[in-house]
Amino acid sequence: MIVFIEKLNSEVLRSIERIESRDTDVLKKSL
C-alpha cells in the first residue's frame, strides 16, 4: 500500500513538472 502511494506521488510530481515546464515555455514565447 505504501509503495502504491509513493508511486502515485511520483507520478503526480512528474505531471506537475511537465505542466510547469509547458507553462514556462508558453510564457517565453509570449514575451
What descriptors fit this protein?
31 residues; mainly alpha; 94% helix; RteC protein
Structural account:
This is RteC protein. It comes from Bacteroides xylanisolvens. With 31 residues, the protein is mainly alpha-helical. It has one domain (1-26). 94% of the residues lie in helices and 0% in strands. The protein has one helix at residues 2-30. The longest helix has 29 residues, at 2-30. The chain is rod-shaped, with a radius of gyration of 14 Å. The termini are far apart.
Share of residues in strands: under 5%
Indicate the radius of gyration in whole angstroms: 14 Å
Give the strand tally: 0
- Give the structural class: mainly alpha
Protein name: RteC protein
Organism: Bacteroides xylanisolvens
